[in-house]
TrEMBL record:
Keywords, in A-Z order: Transferase
GO terms under biological process: ceramide metabolic process
The name this protein goes by in its record: CERK
Domain DAGKc, chain residue ranges per copy: 86-235
Organism annotation: Mytilus coruscus
Entries under InterPro entries matching the protein: ATP-NAD_kinase_N, Diacylglycerol_kinase_cat_dom, Lipid_Phosphate_FormReg, NAD/diacylglycerol_kinase_sf
Protein backbone atom coordinates (compact mmCIF):
# COMPACT_ATOMS: atom_id res chain seq x y z
CA UNK A 1 0.00 0.00 0.00
CA UNK A 2 1.43 3.36 -1.04
CA UNK A 3 0.28 6.95 -0.52
CA UNK A 4 0.81 10.21 -2.37
CA UNK A 5 0.12 12.90 0.21
CA UNK A 6 -3.01 11.47 1.88
CA UNK A 7 -4.29 9.58 -1.16
CA UNK A 8 -3.96 5.85 -1.28
CA UNK A 9 -2.55 5.14 -4.76
CA UNK A 10 -1.83 2.45 -7.33
CA UNK A 11 1.45 2.85 -9.23
CA UNK A 12 2.11 1.27 -12.62
CA UNK A 13 5.22 1.24 -14.81
CA UNK A 14 3.68 0.00 -18.03
CA UNK A 15 3.97 1.19 -21.64
CA UNK A 16 6.98 3.40 -20.94
CA UNK A 17 4.98 5.56 -18.51
CA UNK A 18 4.90 5.62 -14.70
CA UNK A 19 1.34 6.42 -13.62
CA UNK A 20 0.11 7.16 -10.14
CA UNK A 21 -3.69 6.81 -9.78
CA UNK A 22 -6.08 7.08 -6.84
CA UNK A 23 -8.22 4.16 -5.74
CA UNK A 24 -11.08 5.78 -7.70
CA UNK A 25 -8.80 5.60 -10.75
CA UNK A 26 -8.15 9.33 -10.95
CA UNK A 27 -4.77 9.99 -12.55
CA UNK A 28 -2.61 11.90 -10.04
CA UNK A 29 0.76 11.77 -11.80
CA UNK A 30 2.13 10.53 -15.10
CA UNK A 31 5.86 10.48 -15.91
CA UNK A 32 7.52 9.06 -19.02
CA UNK A 33 10.01 6.40 -17.94
CA UNK A 34 12.71 7.93 -20.19
CA UNK A 35 12.47 11.05 -18.00
CA UNK A 36 12.93 9.17 -14.71
CA UNK A 37 16.25 10.09 -13.13
CA UNK A 38 16.56 8.24 -9.85
CA UNK A 39 14.47 6.67 -7.09
CA UNK A 40 15.78 7.08 -3.53
CA UNK A 41 14.41 4.76 -0.84
CA UNK A 42 14.54 5.75 2.84
CA UNK A 43 12.63 3.05 4.74
CA UNK A 44 8.98 3.80 3.98
CA UNK A 45 9.62 6.90 1.86
CA UNK A 46 10.32 6.62 -1.84
CA UNK A 47 11.46 9.83 -3.55
CA UNK A 48 11.26 9.70 -7.34
CA UNK A 49 13.44 12.27 -9.12
CA UNK A 50 12.40 12.98 -12.69
CA UNK A 51 12.88 15.57 -15.41
CA UNK A 52 10.42 17.88 -17.10
CA UNK A 53 11.00 19.83 -20.29
CA UNK A 54 10.12 23.51 -20.18
CA UNK A 55 8.93 25.59 -23.14
CA UNK A 56 12.41 27.14 -23.59
CA UNK A 57 13.85 23.58 -24.04
CA UNK A 58 15.52 23.66 -20.61
CA UNK A 59 15.15 20.56 -18.46
CA UNK A 60 14.28 20.80 -14.79
CA UNK A 61 14.41 18.21 -11.98
CA UNK A 62 11.18 17.54 -10.06
CA UNK A 63 10.40 15.08 -7.27
CA UNK A 64 7.45 12.93 -6.28
CA UNK A 65 7.37 11.50 -2.75
CA UNK A 66 5.46 8.29 -2.10
CA UNK A 67 5.19 6.69 1.33
CA UNK A 68 3.53 3.70 2.92
CA UNK A 69 4.23 0.04 3.26
CA UNK A 70 8.00 -0.68 3.40
CA UNK A 71 7.79 -3.80 1.23
CA UNK A 72 5.67 -2.07 -1.46
CA UNK A 73 8.06 0.91 -1.46
CA UNK A 74 11.01 -1.49 -1.88
CA UNK A 75 9.34 -3.30 -4.77
CA UNK A 76 8.54 -0.10 -6.61
CA UNK A 77 12.08 1.15 -5.97
CA UNK A 78 13.65 -1.93 -7.57
CA UNK A 79 11.20 -1.76 -10.52
CA UNK A 80 12.17 1.87 -11.17
CA UNK A 81 15.89 1.10 -10.79
CA UNK A 82 15.46 -1.72 -13.33
CA UNK A 83 14.14 0.76 -15.92
CA UNK A 84 17.32 2.83 -15.37
CA UNK A 85 19.76 -0.04 -15.84
CA UNK A 86 21.09 1.21 -19.21
CA UNK A 87 21.86 4.72 -18.03
CA UNK A 88 25.54 5.81 -17.89
CA UNK A 89 27.24 4.88 -14.61
CA UNK A 90 30.96 5.55 -15.22
CA UNK A 91 32.17 8.61 -17.08
CA UNK A 92 35.48 10.15 -18.01
CA UNK A 93 35.05 13.91 -17.50
CA UNK A 94 37.55 16.25 -19.20
CA UNK A 95 37.39 19.85 -17.96
CA UNK A 96 39.09 22.78 -19.70
CA UNK A 97 39.48 25.41 -16.92
CA UNK A 98 40.43 28.04 -19.53
CA UNK A 99 37.36 27.73 -21.76
CA UNK A 100 35.23 30.79 -22.46
CA UNK A 101 34.98 32.88 -19.30
CA UNK A 102 37.15 30.35 -17.39
CA UNK A 103 34.18 28.91 -15.50
CA UNK A 104 34.54 25.27 -16.60
CA UNK A 105 35.63 23.88 -13.24
CA UNK A 106 33.04 25.91 -11.33
CA UNK A 107 30.27 24.72 -13.66
CA UNK A 108 31.39 21.12 -13.16
CA UNK A 109 31.52 21.38 -9.36
CA UNK A 110 28.32 23.39 -8.88
CA UNK A 111 26.05 21.94 -11.55
CA UNK A 112 27.29 18.57 -12.81
CA UNK A 113 28.86 16.96 -9.72
CA UNK A 114 25.70 17.12 -7.49
CA UNK A 115 23.52 15.63 -10.26
CA UNK A 116 26.11 12.90 -10.96
CA UNK A 117 26.10 12.11 -7.24
CA UNK A 118 22.30 11.95 -7.13
CA UNK A 119 22.36 9.41 -9.97
CA UNK A 120 25.28 7.36 -8.52
CA UNK A 121 27.45 8.20 -11.51
CA UNK A 122 31.17 7.64 -10.91
CA UNK A 123 33.19 10.33 -12.67
CA UNK A 124 36.92 10.25 -13.31
CA UNK A 125 37.55 13.99 -13.58
CA UNK A 126 40.65 15.28 -15.40
CA UNK A 127 41.31 19.02 -15.46
CA UNK A 128 43.49 19.84 -18.46
CA UNK A 129 46.59 22.01 -18.16
CA UNK A 130 47.39 22.64 -21.81
CA UNK A 131 46.24 22.27 -25.39
CA UNK A 132 46.45 18.76 -26.92
CA UNK A 133 46.27 17.16 -23.46
CA UNK A 134 42.82 15.64 -24.17
CA UNK A 135 44.28 13.87 -27.24
CA UNK A 136 47.11 12.43 -25.12
CA UNK A 137 44.70 11.28 -22.41
CA UNK A 138 42.57 9.41 -24.94
CA UNK A 139 45.60 7.68 -26.49
CA UNK A 140 45.99 5.32 -23.55
CA UNK A 141 42.89 5.65 -21.35
CA UNK A 142 41.12 2.36 -20.56
CA UNK A 143 37.93 3.03 -22.53
CA UNK A 144 36.40 -0.34 -21.68
CA UNK A 145 35.88 0.91 -18.10
CA UNK A 146 33.58 3.81 -19.01
CA UNK A 147 30.13 4.39 -20.52
CA UNK A 148 31.01 7.75 -22.07
CA UNK A 149 33.26 10.77 -22.21
CA UNK A 150 32.04 14.18 -21.03
CA UNK A 151 33.69 17.44 -21.99
CA UNK A 152 33.26 20.56 -19.87
CA UNK A 153 34.32 23.38 -22.15
CA UNK A 154 33.66 24.72 -25.62
CA UNK A 155 33.35 23.39 -29.14
CA UNK A 156 37.15 23.27 -29.42
CA UNK A 157 37.48 20.91 -26.45
CA UNK A 158 34.75 18.68 -27.89
CA UNK A 159 36.53 18.62 -31.27
CA UNK A 160 39.83 17.74 -29.65
CA UNK A 161 38.27 14.90 -27.62
CA UNK A 162 36.41 13.67 -30.69
CA UNK A 163 39.73 13.68 -32.59
CA UNK A 164 41.43 11.77 -29.77
CA UNK A 165 38.61 9.21 -29.59
CA UNK A 166 38.35 8.66 -33.35
CA UNK A 167 42.15 8.39 -33.69
CA UNK A 168 42.21 5.84 -30.86
CA UNK A 169 39.44 3.76 -32.47
CA UNK A 170 41.28 3.76 -35.83
CA UNK A 171 44.50 2.69 -34.11
CA UNK A 172 42.73 -0.11 -32.19
CA UNK A 173 41.25 -1.32 -35.50
CA UNK A 174 44.51 -1.06 -37.51
CA UNK A 175 43.02 1.47 -39.94
CA UNK A 176 45.45 3.08 -42.39
CA UNK A 177 44.53 6.63 -41.39
CA UNK A 178 46.67 8.38 -44.00
CA UNK A 179 44.77 6.79 -46.86
CA UNK A 180 41.87 9.08 -47.77
CA UNK A 181 39.89 6.22 -49.32
CA UNK A 182 39.72 4.22 -46.11
CA UNK A 183 36.44 4.29 -44.22
CA UNK A 184 36.51 5.68 -40.70
CA UNK A 185 35.58 3.09 -38.06
CA UNK A 186 32.79 4.47 -35.87
CA UNK A 187 33.30 5.01 -32.16
CA UNK A 188 30.71 3.29 -30.01
CA UNK A 189 31.50 5.45 -26.97
CA UNK A 190 29.37 8.60 -26.77
CA UNK A 191 30.70 12.07 -26.01
CA UNK A 192 28.55 14.34 -23.88
CA UNK A 193 29.12 18.10 -23.77
CA UNK A 194 28.58 20.39 -20.79
CA UNK A 195 28.83 23.92 -22.22
CA UNK A 196 31.41 26.22 -20.63
CA UNK A 197 33.08 27.67 -23.73
CA UNK A 198 32.85 30.72 -25.97
CA UNK A 199 30.29 29.69 -28.59
CA UNK A 200 28.85 26.34 -27.47
CA UNK A 201 27.33 25.89 -30.91
CA UNK A 202 27.11 22.09 -30.76
CA UNK A 203 25.20 22.06 -27.48
CA UNK A 204 22.76 24.68 -28.77
CA UNK A 205 22.24 22.56 -31.88
CA UNK A 206 21.72 19.38 -29.87
CA UNK A 207 19.55 20.62 -27.00
CA UNK A 208 18.06 23.87 -28.31
CA UNK A 209 19.56 25.64 -25.30
CA UNK A 210 23.00 26.38 -23.86
CA UNK A 211 21.84 25.67 -20.30
CA UNK A 212 24.55 23.64 -18.50
CA UNK A 213 22.23 21.75 -16.13
CA UNK A 214 20.04 20.77 -19.11
CA UNK A 215 23.15 19.31 -20.80
CA UNK A 216 24.00 17.35 -17.63
CA UNK A 217 20.45 15.98 -17.45
CA UNK A 218 20.53 14.92 -21.11
CA UNK A 219 23.74 13.01 -20.37
CA UNK A 220 22.20 11.33 -17.31
CA UNK A 221 19.04 10.38 -19.24
CA UNK A 222 21.36 8.55 -21.64
CA UNK A 223 20.00 9.57 -25.07
CA UNK A 224 22.43 9.85 -27.94
CA UNK A 225 22.55 10.76 -31.60
CA UNK A 226 24.97 9.87 -34.40
CA UNK A 227 27.11 12.56 -35.90
CA UNK A 228 29.17 12.85 -39.06
CA UNK A 229 32.94 12.96 -38.88
CA UNK A 230 35.21 13.99 -41.76
CA UNK A 231 38.86 13.07 -42.10
CA UNK A 232 40.93 15.84 -43.68
CA UNK A 233 44.02 14.82 -45.66
CA UNK A 234 46.80 16.79 -47.27
CA UNK A 235 49.85 15.54 -49.15
CA UNK A 236 48.96 11.92 -48.45
CA UNK A 237 48.73 12.51 -44.71
CA UNK A 238 45.82 12.75 -42.26
CA UNK A 239 45.64 16.31 -40.94
CA UNK A 240 42.69 16.03 -38.59
CA UNK A 241 39.14 14.84 -38.08
CA UNK A 242 36.29 17.34 -38.22
CA UNK A 243 32.80 16.97 -36.77
CA UNK A 244 31.46 20.49 -36.67
CA UNK A 245 32.55 22.64 -39.59
CA UNK A 246 35.05 22.12 -42.36
CA UNK A 247 35.85 25.62 -43.55
CA UNK A 248 38.19 27.30 -45.97
CA UNK A 249 38.52 30.67 -47.67
CA UNK A 250 37.09 33.59 -45.70
CA UNK A 251 35.72 31.36 -42.96
CA UNK A 252 39.09 29.65 -42.54
CA UNK A 253 40.88 33.01 -42.43
CA UNK A 254 38.44 34.30 -39.78
CA UNK A 255 38.94 31.30 -37.53
CA UNK A 256 42.71 31.43 -38.01
CA UNK A 257 42.77 35.13 -37.09
CA UNK A 258 40.51 34.56 -34.05
CA UNK A 259 42.92 31.94 -32.65
CA UNK A 260 45.63 34.62 -32.41
CA UNK A 261 43.41 36.63 -30.06
CA UNK A 262 42.35 33.83 -27.71
CA UNK A 263 43.29 36.07 -24.75
CA UNK A 264 40.24 38.23 -25.60
CA UNK A 265 37.89 35.36 -24.70
CA UNK A 266 34.49 35.04 -26.42
CA UNK A 267 34.66 38.72 -27.49
CA UNK A 268 37.23 37.79 -30.17
CA UNK A 269 34.49 36.25 -32.32
CA UNK A 270 32.66 39.63 -32.46
CA UNK A 271 35.69 41.79 -33.21
CA UNK A 272 38.36 39.88 -35.17
CA UNK A 273 36.16 38.70 -38.11
CA UNK A 274 35.56 42.36 -39.05
CA UNK A 275 39.30 42.76 -39.71
CA UNK A 276 39.37 39.44 -41.62
CA UNK A 277 36.50 40.70 -43.79
CA UNK A 278 38.40 43.89 -44.62
CA UNK A 279 41.48 42.01 -45.83
CA UNK A 280 39.32 39.52 -47.70
CA UNK A 281 41.03 37.68 -50.56
CA UNK A 282 39.58 35.79 -53.50
CA UNK A 283 40.02 32.06 -53.45
CA UNK A 284 39.53 29.75 -56.38
CA UNK A 285 38.23 26.45 -55.15
CA UNK A 286 36.70 23.34 -56.58
CA UNK A 287 34.76 20.89 -54.47
CA UNK A 288 34.00 17.39 -55.60
CA UNK A 289 31.80 15.11 -53.55
CA UNK A 290 30.63 11.57 -53.94
CA UNK A 291 27.08 10.77 -52.94
CA UNK A 292 26.28 7.94 -50.53
CA UNK A 293 24.08 6.63 -53.31
CA UNK A 294 26.62 5.04 -55.67
CA UNK A 295 24.20 5.34 -58.64
CA UNK A 296 24.35 9.10 -58.48
CA UNK A 297 27.07 10.70 -60.54
CA UNK A 298 29.88 12.60 -58.86
CA UNK A 299 28.97 16.26 -58.54
CA UNK A 300 31.26 19.20 -58.88
CA UNK A 301 30.82 22.77 -57.69
CA UNK A 302 33.12 25.56 -58.78
CA UNK A 303 33.48 29.08 -57.53
CA UNK A 304 35.94 31.93 -57.77
CA UNK A 305 35.61 34.37 -54.89
CA UNK A 306 32.01 33.28 -54.39
CA UNK A 307 30.07 31.80 -51.53
CA UNK A 308 29.76 28.06 -52.21
CA UNK A 309 27.15 25.92 -50.51
CA UNK A 310 26.97 22.18 -50.67
CA UNK A 311 23.50 20.78 -51.39
CA UNK A 312 21.02 20.33 -48.57
CA UNK A 313 21.20 17.01 -46.80
CA UNK A 314 24.95 16.71 -47.18
CA UNK A 315 25.41 16.25 -43.47
CA UNK A 316 22.60 13.75 -42.84
CA UNK A 317 24.14 11.59 -40.12
CA UNK A 318 23.47 8.22 -41.68
CA UNK A 319 24.65 9.33 -45.11
CA UNK A 320 28.12 8.19 -46.16
CA UNK A 321 29.62 10.60 -48.63
CA UNK A 322 32.98 11.94 -49.58
CA UNK A 323 34.12 15.41 -50.41
CA UNK A 324 37.40 16.33 -51.90
CA UNK A 325 38.83 19.72 -52.57
CA UNK A 326 41.79 20.73 -54.57
CA UNK A 327 44.20 23.27 -53.22
CA UNK A 328 43.71 26.88 -54.23
CA UNK A 329 44.55 27.12 -57.93
CA UNK A 330 44.83 29.98 -60.36
CA UNK A 331 42.36 30.39 -63.21
CA UNK A 332 39.30 28.35 -63.98
CA UNK A 333 39.66 24.59 -64.18
CA UNK A 334 38.18 22.16 -66.64
CA UNK A 335 37.97 18.44 -66.02
CA UNK A 336 41.43 17.67 -67.45
CA UNK A 337 42.92 20.31 -65.14
CA UNK A 338 41.24 18.60 -62.25
CA UNK A 339 42.99 15.34 -63.01
CA UNK A 340 46.30 17.19 -63.19
CA UNK A 341 45.51 18.82 -59.90
CA UNK A 342 44.83 15.52 -58.25
CA UNK A 343 48.40 14.48 -58.97
CA UNK A 344 49.76 17.54 -57.22
CA UNK A 345 51.18 17.42 -53.74
CA UNK A 346 49.28 19.40 -51.17
CA UNK A 347 45.76 18.48 -52.19
CA UNK A 348 43.17 18.26 -49.48
CA UNK A 349 40.63 15.48 -49.19
CA UNK A 350 37.84 15.10 -46.72
CA UNK A 351 35.89 11.93 -46.19
CA UNK A 352 32.88 11.99 -43.97
CA UNK A 353 31.13 9.16 -42.22
CA UNK A 354 28.99 8.70 -39.17
CA UNK A 355 31.47 7.89 -36.51
CA UNK A 356 30.93 9.56 -33.22
CA UNK A 357 28.00 9.73 -30.86
CA UNK A 358 26.93 12.75 -28.92
CA UNK A 359 24.61 12.84 -25.98
CA UNK A 360 21.20 14.13 -26.82
CA UNK A 361 17.60 13.51 -26.06
CA UNK A 362 16.55 11.35 -28.98
CA UNK A 363 13.20 13.06 -29.38
CA UNK A 364 14.66 16.51 -29.96
N1 LIG B 1 44.20 24.04 -19.75
C1 LIG B 1 44.18 24.45 -21.02
N2 LIG B 1 44.80 25.59 -21.38
C2 LIG B 1 44.75 26.03 -22.66
N3 LIG B 1 44.10 25.41 -23.68
C3 LIG B 1 43.47 24.27 -23.37
C4 LIG B 1 43.47 23.74 -22.03
N4 LIG B 1 42.74 22.61 -22.02
C5 LIG B 1 42.31 22.43 -23.29
N5 LIG B 1 42.75 23.42 -24.09
C6 LIG B 1 42.46 23.60 -25.54
O1 LIG B 1 41.81 24.85 -25.78
C7 LIG B 1 41.06 24.77 -27.00
C8 LIG B 1 39.73 25.51 -26.88
O2 LIG B 1 39.01 24.96 -25.83
P1 LIG B 1 37.46 25.22 -25.59
O3 LIG B 1 36.69 24.89 -26.80
O4 LIG B 1 37.12 24.50 -24.34
O5 LIG B 1 37.40 26.79 -25.30
P2 LIG B 1 36.66 27.98 -26.02
O6 LIG B 1 37.04 29.19 -25.27
O7 LIG B 1 35.21 27.72 -26.17
O8 LIG B 1 37.32 27.99 -27.41
P3 LIG B 1 36.65 27.78 -28.85
O9 LIG B 1 35.85 29.01 -29.09
O10 LIG B 1 37.85 27.63 -29.74
O11 LIG B 1 35.81 26.55 -28.79
C9 LIG B 1 40.89 23.28 -27.28
O12 LIG B 1 41.66 22.95 -28.41
C10 LIG B 1 41.43 22.61 -26.03
O13 LIG B 1 42.04 21.39 -26.25
Amino acid sequence: MLFLNDNRVNVSLEGGVMTVASEENNLLASIEVRYLLKAVLERTNLTVHYVIKKKNMNLKVKTLVLHGDEEDAQMLHSDIEHTLKDRPRRLLVIVNPNSGKKKGLKIYKKIAAPLFQLCDVKADVIVTRKQKEPTDILKNYNLSNIDGIVTVGGDGLYCECMNGLIARVQRDNNVKVNCHNTDIVSASLPIGIIPAGSGNVIVQYLHGTKCASTAVLHILLGGNVESNVCSVHEGGKLLSYSALILGFGLFGDMMHDCEKFRWMGPLRYNVVPVASMLKRREIDVEIEYYSANKDKATKRIRGLGKQISLPNGFMIPSCKSKIQRTKSTSGVLDSSDVQECEKEEGRVYAVDTHAVMMKENQEE
